[in-house]
Specification:
- The protein is α/β, with parallel strands linked by helices and about 500 residues long.
- It has two domains: about 160 residues, no CATH class; about 230 residues, Rossmann fold (3-Layer(aba) Sandwich), CATH 3.40.50.720.
- α12 crosses α13.
- It starts with a helix and ends with a helix.
């Protein structure tokens, strides 16, 4: 097995696999913290164990007879697992373009490895059974390092797959318990982090859902049954819609705020909201309520001042977006529709949002505050936000701005300390504000280093009860530390806040 070409191909396979694991599985897709990817993690764990055996065997041994046949069998099993992994990925998540390209290159390169390795192993299988020590210089060292690496990540994936059992979310139907039965609800932004859970909750509670999506076959696997549309013009004028939930918009924190990005952020929100107003105008039966997304960025950047729906705002890009967005939504009021502008804070969950970007570095002990850590973070647990949406749909007395935040905001330092305790990890690696500002510009200054201390005055005054009013309790539930307690308590029960608090 002393072929430089073969070992070069194996080296390429190791590099591509390492890139796929670190960049995609860990830092981009964050599979270890997604409950939906439990089966994929199990497949990865098993495949990594096979890789570890293969790397040690091919790097340090010449296997003959039955041992060579066992190696051939392992190669066959690895191919089967990889095919199963492809199917699982297509069924459970959308792969980014870079991951699809990487997988294609891995498959092509692996095919070339097999073309060279299989004839050699077949020749060895015809020899008397034996295991002979061998060394191929630094190629063997590379193989050993790769074996150790895949073994470590195989163990991590196995443990993460078990953790996914604790990350399973509550039954979604309970989240919409306050809605009248058999509502027809139009949801825009239905494939987003919040929208997916809203749709799941509505479907589970027996409501009729019309979901506006970019593609007629959304790869996020929205819970069925529902009606998928790609344009609001596809809705007939005689369609009866009881409520509209507008969550559509270009993600705001996934790329630098270039001029083009700023234009997309603003235009996507205004175009979707204006299209909703046009739909309402031509519907024979008007919806009772439009719940339109907004954000706490409406208030601009503040220090330690407590802000509620009666507070004013300070100019910045985030505020400009929200002011225009809310103004577009309120045009529906002249059509006789009650409008609620939900100013959403930092939404916490393991399937998306800010928290998912923090979990991997924190899990590896690299987490810590942004800058001085004094900036305020007004947060809300995702299921609480879904319940709040149901609440404002049901309560006809609620209109105008409603803050979608938990009643106890925290500073960035308090947030990272609570996350560190929940993960049993340190949280002492400070990210200097200068580096963040240099790397991300206004995005960092407004979303990471700036903040607002926002209180949900309207929600509390209307009688809404948070299941997760405190951050430690919310993190325990989200990260699987309090699942048993959570599952015993009905959504919205006042006692839940106290039971889940430390």
């Amino acid at each position: 097995m002393n072929s430089d070409l073969l070992w070069t191909l194996i080296g390429v396979q190791i590099l591509l696999g390492g890139f796929d694991t670190l960049f995609h599985h860990e830092f981009t897709e964050r599979l270890a913290w997604r409950a939906s990817q439990r089966h994929e993690l199990q497949l990865h764990a098993l495949r990594n164990c096979i890789y570890a055996v293969l790397f040690v065997t091919l790097g340090w041994l010449e296997v003959r007879g039955i041992w060579a046949m066992l190696v051939l069998a392992l190669l066959a099993v690895e191919i089967v697992i990889t095919l199963m992994d492809f199917v699982e990925e297509d069924m459970s998540r959308k792969l980014p373009a870079s991951e699809r390209i990487t997988h294609t290159l891995l498959a092509i390169n692996y095919g070339a490895v097999l073309v060279i390795a299989i004839p050699v192993l077949l020749d060895w299988s015809r020899l008397p059974t034996a295991i002979i020590a061998a060394s191929y210089g630094w190629w063997s060292m590379m193989a050993m390092a790769a074996a150790v690496g895949v073994a470590i990540f195989g163990l991590r994936d196995a443990l993460a797959s078990q953790r996914c059992l604790r990350l399973e979310t509550r039954p979604a139907g309970r989240l919409m318990a306050t809605l009248p039965p058999r509502q027809t609800v139009l949801v825009t932004g239905a494939t987003g982090f919040i929208g997916r859970r809203v749709v799941e909750a509505l479907v589970a509670d027996g409501h009729t859902v019309i979901a506006l999506v970019r593609s007629p076959n959304p790869d996020t696997l929205l819970k069925r049954p529902l009606t998928l549309i790609t344009a609001l013009e596809q809705i007939a004028a005689d369609t009866r819609i009881d409520a509209i939930i507008n969550l559509a918009g270009e993600p705001i924190a996934n790329a630098l705020w270039t001029k083009a990005k700023r234009t997309r952020i603003t235009a996507s929100r205004l175009e979707a909201t204006n299209a909703i107003t046009a739909l309402i105008a031509r519907l024979a039966h008007k919806p009772r309520v439009l719940v339109s997304g907004s954000a706490i960025g409406w208030y601009g950047l503040w220090q330690d001042e407590a802000l509620d729906e009666s507070s004013s705002g300070r100019e910045c890009f985030s505020r400009d977006i929200c002011v225009s967005w809310e103004a577009a939504a309120r045009k529906a009021e002249v059509l006789g529709v009650r409008v609620v502008c939900l100013r959403i804070g930092l939404v916490l969950g393991t399937e998306g949002g800010m928290l998912t970007r923090m979990l991997t570095p924190f899990e590896f002990g690299l987490g810590g505050p942004f800058g001085a850590g004094r900036q305020w973070m007004s947060w809300i647990e995702r299921d609480d936000l879904v319940r709040l949406i149901a609440h404002v749909i049901t309560d006809a007395d609620i209109s105008g701005a409603v803050n979608g935040t938990a009643p106890e905001p925290v500073t960035n330092t308090e947030f990272v300390q609570a996350l560190g305790r929940a993960l049993h990890r340190p949280a002492s690696v400070t990210v200097p504000s200068g580096i963040l500002s240099l790397a991300a510009g206004d995005l960092a200054r407004e979303l990471l280093l700036g903040g607002q201390k926002v209180l949900p005055a309207a929600a509390l005054a209307s009688g809404f009860t948070f299941d997760h009013a405190t951050l430690p309790g919310a993190l325990d539930a989200i990260l699987g530390n309090a699942t048993a307690v959570l599952n015993r308590i009905p959504a919205g029960a006042p006692a839940s806040t106290h039971l889940l608090s430390p």
